[in-house]
Amino acid sequence: MSKSKSFDYVLFAVIVILLVIGINMVFSASMYIDKEIYNDGFYHLKRQTVWAILGIVFMFITSKVDYKRYRNRKLIGLAMLITIFLLVIVLALPPVKGARRWIGFGGLGIQPSELSKIVLVVYLSDMLTRKGEKVKSFLKGVLPVLIISGLFAGLIIIEPNMSTSVIVMATAFSMLFVAGAKISQLSLILFIGCIGGFLLIKSADYRWRRFTAFLNPWADPLGNGYQAIQSLYALGAGGLFGVGFGQSRQKNYYIPEAQNDFIFSIIGEELGFIGVFIIILLFSILIWRGIRIAINCKDKFGTLLATGITSLIAIQSSINLLVVSSSMPVTGVTLPLISYGGSSLLFTLIALGILLNISRDI
């Protein structure tokens, strides 16, 4: 089951620190609203803590299981079928807040799209390892990866959840690059992907309104530009040292559900530039350790698996930080390990447990 070598303790420490900061900031961002809505200021804190404990348990399990065991083709195939089944089933369920993303279990919700990211990374790692030099061929190497990734992204975007589908495709792209696909082919895919992304944005009115609001949020300050403006107010109010933990004003109905996608804004307001810098530094260290693990891993499967997991964290955290700083259109992407969200936290910790296990092999 386990390897004799120890895992990357720097990576582990960063994960724990981010998780502790996240739990505290979820409490700070939600406590006042929780008192009014649920008559329990600890409502979101308790739920996030339960998911965090569950995630830590699974992280330790995956950190002990030899990552090479995931190359079992029957196991990978079964996981793929179950994931696709869940992605289809969720589309038949009643929408929650205008989207079909959650499957409920005893009052708790899980997002199949979060599971799909890990399963796809494992599957593509095995596929690209087996293909070897064939990855340089578009028809035999690149196209099969695009078809599988496109299937997952397509099912996710129907929910609708364009941001997660972008993360899925961007992660697949990074894995193709590391696997040795030709730069000319990847450049063409990137160009076509940008055009496709623009067409998807244009095809839905709400996406187009968000895009135009991003260009000038003050043109519609009470509509599509509202969240971006309130986020900038929060970040600007924090100054160098912040207004103090728990003292944010913007979390009080100005930023809707501040404990979710815009929790970084609350961090900026309460902990200031220093707090923002520390969070960015911690994510930078996490990504650096992930890249280091990928580069130094002794086998190609481990390298690709570490690349995929690190890419998921890097891409998702980058999108979130760009959104809250109004550097890209508003979209629903959580900040890994920080934002409130049970299934996102659980599967992120599972993936990081796998990354810790790979670090034993360098």
Automatic annotation (TrEMBL):
Peptidoglycan polymerase that is essential for cell division. Belongs to the SEDS family. FtsW subfamily. GO terms for biological process: cell division; cell wall organization; peptidoglycan biosynthetic process; regulation of cell shape. This is Probable peptidoglycan glycosyltransferase FtsW. Its EC number is 2.4.99.28. It is found in: Cell membrane. GO terms for molecular function: lipid-linked peptidoglycan transporter activity; peptidoglycan glycosyltransferase activity. It comes from Caloramator fervidus. It holds the Pfam family FTSW_RODA_SPOVE. It is an enzyme of class 2 (transferase).
